[in-house]
Amino acid sequence: MSDHYEMMYILRPDLGEEPVDQAIAKYENILREQGAEDIEIQHRGRRRLAYEIKRQREGIYVQMNYKAPGAHVAPLERAMRLSEEVMRYLTLKVEAPAVETPEPVEVEA
């Protein structure tokens, strides 16, 4: 069974446009190799950080939403942990919204 995940990661700000695109493609390919589906990538651009990370005050934010089995998240996180270009990452499991059934309404005649 596949779960929905949302991952946000921050790349070093000193990377050029081409290395950023290569990094995004690399992590997307890792997900595809692991069998992820419905991959949506949003390049959020360069933003100022709330606090310094690895002596950097800015970072390039990228958000990925995807659907994959839980065991397939670990290889992606391992690749990011070992990478020099990724400063931080966070993966969240997105819970499916609960569908509420409307209560029956009594109609007086």
Write the layout of secondary structure elements.
Elements: E1 3-11, H1 17-33, E2 37-53, E3 56-68, H2 73-82, E4 86-94
Antiparallel strand pairs: 1-3, 1-4, 2-3
Keywords: Ribonucleoprotein, Ribosomal protein, RNA-binding, rRNA-binding
GO molecular function: small ribosomal subunit rRNA binding; structural constituent of ribosome
InterPro entries: Ribosomal_bS6, Ribosomal_bS6_CS, Ribosomal_bS6_sf, Ribosomal_S6_plastid/chlpt, Transl_elong_EF1B/ribsomal_bS6
Key attributes of the depicted protein:
109 residues; alpha+beta; Alpha-Beta Plaits; 2 helices; Small ribosomal subunit protein bS6; ribosomal protein; rRNA-binding; small ribosomal subunit rRNA binding
In short:
This protein is an alpha+beta fold and 109 residues long. It is 25% helix and 44% strand.
Globally, the shape reads elongated
Please report the total strand number as a whole number: 4
Major sheet attributes: 4 strands, antiparallel
CATH architecture: 2-Layer Sandwich
Radius of gyration in whole Å, from Cα? 19 Å
